[in-house]
Design brief:
By secondary structure, this protein is an alpha/beta fold. Helices cover 24% and strands 26% of the residues. It folds into 3 domains: 190 residues, HUPs (Rossmann fold, 3-Layer(aba) Sandwich), CATH 3.40.50.620; 62 residues, SH3 type barrels (Roll), CATH 2.30.30; 86 residues, Translation factors (Elongation Factor Tu (Ef-tu), domain 3). The strands form 4 sheets. It has a 6-stranded antiparallel beta barrel. α1 runs parallel beside α2 and α3 runs antiparallel to α4. The chain is globular. Belongs to the MnmA/TRMU family. It is an enzyme of class 2 (transferase). GO terms for molecular function: transferase activity.
Length: 373
């Protein structure tokens, strides 16, 4: 099978490519240049797409003895990931750029180009497992290493693209195992630090990035009663559930901490209040992607709403091809923001994904007939 290996310049993608070679595939390595300033320097674990990363990927390909190319995808990345990131924050939502990158770049633009060039599949260093059933169904599952599992950010790819994806690291037990394998293979990236935070915000200052792109839009910080308790330079710099950096002019009457409850960009307002006001009973998801049949109302499963968050018990209230609403009462979920990704699981299997459109607090939930709230 002809396989295109996406090589970021990190240890995971290098070892994944090596395993694809070991599996007997005809492998070609490609580095996606996503930055419009590729000459930038990588700083520790921050940043991506630097000259250093491209060079590291080339050296790994040389060790593996496979052809290597650099593909410029910066325009696609800028249009579908960075622009979406800015638009979502400007609208008061909280996007996950890794989800959008997997959706629009790695498993859309890259895969489509690979198929057009005659490749059969794309191989990446993501931590996730693919299970092939006897009936030909391919299932996306959590990785064996729960600490590194990336099925959450991959769930947006859908079954058609999963059919053309290979994740050789899905069965490893730890990142230490990957690094040890890289050492054994003579790959110089064995000790290279992982990349954290938002890859295109190299200095880690997300608020500064947003301010430079969107400009200052000063407004009020208000409590639940509408009383002004502070000022801000841009509502876009806040997200539901945030506690730090509120710079409130005065504390709450009861002295307890306050959190962001809502972001209202049109009014240029940020609403703050107590932690319990962040409690979530129902999560409503839109633009659904399903890997299995749409679950019937009453189906019990688990839900994950943050990339590094735990999954929680959930029950389907309504679902169709386009969206889903789940009941997470009793799960202890707080501070779920519109724009986040809602991923549903049956055990380790990914059933589907949707973008959070709204949440309902326990007080907003109408009890069923004959029951009390």
């Amino acid at each position: 099978m002809r396989v295109l290996a996406a090589m970021s310049g990190g240890v995971d993608s290098a070892v994944a490519a090596a395993r694809a070679v070991d599996a007997g595939h005809d492998v070609v390595g490609v580095h996606m240049a996503l930055s419009r300033t590729p000459a930038q320097e990588r700083t520790g674990s921050r940043g991506c797409c630097s000259i250093e990363d491209a060079s590291d990927a080339r050296r790994a390909a040389d060790v593996l003895g496979i052809p290597y190319y650099v593909w410029d995808m910066s325009e696609r990345f800028e249009q579908t990931v960075v622009a979406d990131f800015l638009a979502e924050y400007a609208a008061g939502r909280t996007p996950n750029p890794c989800v959008r990158c997997n959706e629009h770049v790695k498993f859309a633009a890259l895969l489509d180009k690979a198929l057009a060039l005659g490749f059969d599949a794309v191989c990446t260093g993501h931590y996730a497992r693919v299970v092939d059933r006897a009936d030909g169904t391919r299932e996306l599952h959590r990785a064996s290493d729960a600490a590194k599992d990336q099925s959450y950010v991959l769930a947006v790819m859908g079954p058609e693209r999963l059919a053309r994806a290979i994740f050789p690291l899905g069965d490893v037990t730890s990142k230490a195992e990957v690094r040890a394998e890289a050492v054994a293979r003579g790959l110089s990236v064995a000790a290279k630090p992982d990349s954290y935070d938002i890859c295109f915000v190299a200095d880690g200052d997300t608020q500064g990035f947003l301010r430079r792109a969107l400009g200052e839009q000063p407004g009020d910080v208000v409590d639940e009663g509408g009383e002004v308790v502070g000022r801000h330079d841009g509502a876009y710099a806040y997200t539901v559930g945030q506690r730090r950096g509120l710079a409130l002019g005065r504390p709450a009457a009861d002295g307890r901490p306050r959190y962001v409850l809502a972001v209202e960009p049109v009014q240029r307002r940020v609403v703050v209040g107590p932690a319990e006001s962040l409690d979530v009973a129902h999560v409503v998801g839109a633009s659904a992607v399903w890997f299995a049949d749409v679950p019937a109302p009453g189906t019990t499963l688990t839900a994950q709403v943050r990339a590094h968050g735990a999954d929680v018990p959930a029950r389907v209230l309504a679902a169709d091809a386009d969206g889903v609403t789940v009941d997470v009462t009793g799960a202890g979920l707080r501070g779920v923001a519109a724009g986040q990704s809602l991923v549903l699981y049956d055990g380790t299997r990914v059933l589907g994904q949707a973008t959070v459109a709204a949440t309902r607090a326990p007080a907003d939930v109408v009890p069923a007939p004959g029951r009390t709230a």
